Amino acid sequence: MSAAGEETAIRRQIEKVVEGLRAKDLDALREPYAPDVVSFDVEPPLQHVGIEAKLANWARVFQVFETVDYELRDLTLTIGADVAFGHAFGRLSGAMKNGVATAGMWVRVTYGLRKIDGSWRIAHDQVSVPLDVLSGNGMVDLEP
User: Fold this and answer.
1) In whole angstroms, how far apart are CA 12 and each of 9, 46, 57, 110, 120?
2) pTM (2 decimals)?
3) Residues of the chain with pLDDT under 70
4) Rounded CA separation 86/69 (Å)
5) What is the pLDDT of residue 3?
6) Of 76, 92, 83, 74, whose CA–CA distance to 20 is shortest?
7) Measured between alpha carbons, how far is residue 70 from residues 23, 89, 92, 114 in Å?
8) What are the domain boundaries of the chain?
């Protein structure tokens, strides 16, 4: 596959995550991730290991939100023969089940991908917010 084709395939996998979130569809979210994905998300614990742990994390989001939107900005990729990484800004927003609408907060997202059986899969993701070192508080009002 050409370099452009590889980039298109990776972007499509990440778009599947966005689509799965918007549809609140755990089965759709399973496909873009590697079975042994390791996720460093903003929620405890420090790491979520394996696809079932990753999906459980998304399931908790769906328990709180009636409708989900996810926006991804400035995705930049570096692609090798069988590994790739990317970074972007992401924002989860929507209407919560208690009726409150939230614009969410922008987070930093990093993806590590592996080509498994000819398909790109997200093997690692990390989500973070900048930290004000003096106060120890996350800075959740920043925008890209």
Assistant:
1) 5, 28, 22, 16, 9
2) 0.93
3) none
4) 21
5) 87
6) 92
7) 10, 10, 5, 23
8) 3-129
Per-residue model confidence (pLDDT) at position 78: 98
- Residue 70 CA to residue 13 CA, distance in Å, equals 15
Which fold would CATH assign to domain 3-129? Nuclear Transport Factor 2; Chain: A, (3.10.450)
6: Cβ–Cβ under 8 A, 6 or more apart, which residues?
79, 84, 120
User: Cis peptide leading into 44, omega within 30 of 0?
Assistant: no
Both tokens assigned to 37: 């994905």
Per-residue confidence (pLDDT) for residue 1, from 0 to 100: 81
Angle at 77 between CA 130 and CA 19, to 5 degrees: 80
Q: How far apart (Å, rounded) are the C-alpha atoms in residues 135 and 64?
A: 28
Q: Vertex 142, ends 139 and 144: CA angle to 5°?
A: 140
Contact 140, 54 (CB under 8 A): no
| Cα–Cα distance measured from residue 112 to residue 115, given in angstroms and rounded to the nearest whole number | 10
Residues 12, 18, 24, 26, Cα dihedral to 10°: 50
